[in-house]
Amino acid sequence: MLKIRSARLRMVNFAMQMKHWQRYIVGLLLLLPLWGWAQNPTPAPAGKVVDVDYSDTLWVDQTVGNTFLRGNVRMRQGNVVLLCHLAKKNDLINVVEAYGNVKIIQGDSLTLTGDTAMYFGNTRQAKITGRVVTLNDKVSTLKTRKLDYDMNSKIASYNTGGTLVDKTSTLVSKEGYYNTATKLSVFKKNVKVKSPETDLFADSLRYSTLSKEAYFIAPTQIISKKKKQEAANDTLFTSSGSYNLNSRISNFRGRSTVRMPNNDLTGDSLFYDPITQIGIARGNVVMVAKKDSAILTGQVGRYFGKTGISRVYGEALLQKFFARDTLLLSADTLISQEIRGVKDTTRRLIADRHVLIFRSDLQAKCDSLVYNLADSLISFYKKPILWNGQNQSEADSIFVRLVNNKMRTMYLNRRAFIIARDTLIQYNQVKGRRITAYFNADSKLDNTLVEGNGESIYFAKKEDSKPIGMNYVQASRMRLHFKENQVKRIAFVGSPDGVLRPPKEVTADNRELDGFNWRAKERPTREMVKRLPVKQVKPTPVRKIEPTATLKK
Fold this sequence. Notes:
The chain is mainly beta.
């Protein structure tokens, strides 16, 4: 009995000792992660097992290779640290499921937060979800509901809608990719960018959070805001190019437009700076002056908003719209200048080299022109020649004044010459140092005042249109009155010299004044001014008439 009792006592003591050692071993196992963390071990290479740094509680299910952690969980893989409240780590496939206040830290520059996360240790990829998932890289903050992040490529992606916020702007999109290394991002579907100076709307774009440069690859609208509330904003439309949110400078490729309060500028490529108000368009340029109802087109257009000067080069064309007519003006270069007064702002147009004009009541060509829209005065320089109806006018310089958008007065200065062709195809001629021509309400020649070395040839006829003869008159000052381009009355100052030649005495040598040159072939047409191909009218082919066949009996 004593032996049995002693054996039992030894067994109880052994069991108590084993229980004591078991508690010591379990406690030591729980302290090992803390000891390893305190020793700051070398980070494991990418693709290795995710290590557990710390957890309030830990237990292992060896049958499936799962490790469960709860409370202040901290795990590590290389320079990636994962924090959460609850986690399940599968050692067989090296995958971690994290729940509750999830935070993933990569190095000292990136932090990811969310409600839940899946971390794949072999590929170093994380999938984070939550009411608000946040990515912060010390340059910008990205917020979404679901985020995928690759620790190797450092690219974050989402497709549930996200917002990227940096120091100057806020970017919203349905889908996005953000590279935290290069700070470059790609955003797609319903992209909106907001900043104090700019509102941007696009279907997709690339954006650099460092340079604040946005690159477009789809139709895009940009609203450049003015500081003054009363000033209208500038609006830009493009499908390709870049826009800097800091400098607000646009460099667009492809068909693009900037819409300003008073002007629109469009081209195949476009540069625009709203601060300096400088716009440069190239290729099929269209410039619209809204207040003046005018359109300028060409190959290169330059707009300087602060000075109010616009230039168009290369096949430049002005289309000035009136109530019932359109003025077409082409030249090598067209310059539009704003004349800013105290109350009103008017415009002056300058055309240089190879100038052509077409209007229903006026056609002209010269080498230089100035058109003041304020007083409707058109000045022609350098060998100008004008046509009006059956009239042709030449001088060293010519000035035409429009009243109610119709020709009323024409001033011909130095070596002035007017030719009026009548219904009998006779050429009535007036020349002198200066000529002032007046037109009626229908823009037809009414009378002319000739001053200095005046000469005139006009063909008289009876009421039945039978010719009477040709009058040649010479006087220092005279006024001729016309009706249907026929001289009806003439008045002189001083003693004129003249002669009436009957039709039989009219020859090719005396029927024209010195300098006469009827230049109808040079008269601009609508196609010439607009540089359109002239439609060739094909002659109607002559039908061959076959002889009537005889009927057989």
